[in-house]
Design a protein that fits this description.
The protein is an alpha+beta fold. The protein is built from 5 helices and 4 strands; from the N terminus they run βααββααβα. It has helices at residues 23-28, 30-42, 66-73, 77-80, 98-104; strands spanning 10-19, 46-51, 57-63, 84-93. Strand 2 and strand 3 form a beta hairpin.
Length: 105
């Protein structure tokens, strides 16, 4: 194994949110969405998140298998409120930087 990466074998998902409502409606729900994100970060479920460029939705990298992540994503105010759809792509992290690999354990 090289010193530049590790092999964590961790189940992860990339969640791609796509807005289906006007940005005014999305912005009106942003405080609730950020509170949802914060709770998920506090529970170590999210590794990274942010807006898509251009601003058509967002991307979230989450810990867990597809079904577990889908259940959590369904509670996102954007998704539950019909403001965005979520596409969930599950993958197993077979290579990662040492810092990320340590975090994934």
């Amino acid at each position: 194994m090289s010193g530049s990466f590790t092999r964590p074998s961790a189940p992860l998902c990339v969640v791609t949110l796509t807005y289906i409502a006007d940005l005014d409606e999305v912005d009106a729900a942003m405080t609730r969405h950020v509170a949802w994100l914060t709770k998920a970060y506090d529970n170590a479920l999210i590794i990274a998140s942010g807006r898509r460029v251009p601003r058509t939705g967002g991307v979230i990298i989450m810990r867990g298998d597809h079904d577990a992540v889908a259940a959590i994503v369904a509670t996102d105010p954007f998704v539950a409120g019909g403001l965005a759809t979520a596409e969930i792509t599950a993958f197993t992290a077979s290579m990662a930087t040492p810092a990320l690999g340590d975090m994934l354990g």
